[in-house]
Design a protein that fits this description.
Length: 409
Amino acid sequence: MFKSLRWRLTFWFVLLTTIVYTLSAVFAIWLFRVEMTRVMDEELHALVDELRPAIALKDKVPNLQEWAKTARQVPFKFLPTIQIYDLQGRLIEQHGPSGVPILFSSVKEVRAEDYHIRVCSAPLLDGKQLAGYLQLQLSLRNRERAIAQFGITMGLIFPFLLLALAIAGYVFAGKAASPVEESFVVLRRFMTDAGHELSTPISIIQANAEAMEVEIPESVRENNRLAVITRSTERMANLVKDLMLLSKMESPQIYSNKIPLDFEKLVRGVVEEFQELFKAKSITLSTKRVGPATVVGDAELLKRLVTNLLQNALRYTESSGTVEIGVESLGRNTRLTVSDTGVGIPPESLQSIFERFYRVDKSRSRNQGGAGLGLSIVKAIVDAHRGRIDVYSQVGTGSTFTVTLPTRI
Ligand code: ADP
């Protein structure tokens, strides 16, 4: 239980950190992109401011000859493409890496099959008159490469970070769970000790009440006070036994008694014990679908599992109803089904029936001798065998409990 709690805590911790890391990485990449674009735009605008005064407007046609004389000496590798357009939008001059003829009025990003650029355009004025346009184009290849590199780095760091977090999470989860684990051990010990202490006086009362009952004439035996004491003591003894079993089920040693078992034989044995009880209530108990099957488990616990399911079927099925038990081998698993044509379970109770002391109809269950522990014991046994239990039920029609248990360890 605590091992699984520790793993569960670690799992949630790792999952949460993965989500936080992924979101942070996406945000960081987005921020990096925005910041890089801002810096590029700043540079583009600075260059526009630098270029505009250097453009000669001879005969109202702008040209870059003056500027180009010095600019050509600058390596063009990191420079944008500089373009001059006339008033009609015709490209009249171009410097720098090969650009594309596009005319824009403000900064814009343009992506096509063979280019991905940032474009910045500005009007060229002759006095107050518009004489043409200056346009800068900057390839975004470097920005994209830097972003991809950043993303790859974050992705490469992630597995190592995850491993470190999983180890740290496992260690801390263990530390966090240990006080809870200790209190459970104390509680379990208390339950076992209290159970042992209670069972001795209960057995003494039971034995004495039974002995006294024998001395009473048979005709009045059913309704006398001693009979009430005997029945109540028996209920109390069963309750103590059930609580002790549940407490034992939580101990890790319970996993050690598992051996391969002939499950068909085990089920037939339990059915045999129940035949008379079913007959007495005029309920048909059918074993039509019981076939050969193996289960790796604890014989006593598995017997208890089948007993509790059959006991419930008997309790909650009216006379002349039918109960069918099935055992089926499914390769790696064995399936046990117990179906009845009984009162059924309301849908809102289906989630709770495996909880301790939960009863759908308290008075009915108590009258039948149930304390609401039967199915929680079944669930604990199923969990101890790493199996699963499903229930399908319809009020007024009946219920089917399906237990799937592994055939191997
Ligand atoms: P109980 O000792 O009261 O039978 P269980 O834990 O075995 O306690 O079952 C919990 C409750 O689930 C029962 O009180 C009963 O209402 C319901 N229940 C269990 N099995 C059946 C069944 N086969 N048909 C109808 N109701 C059932």
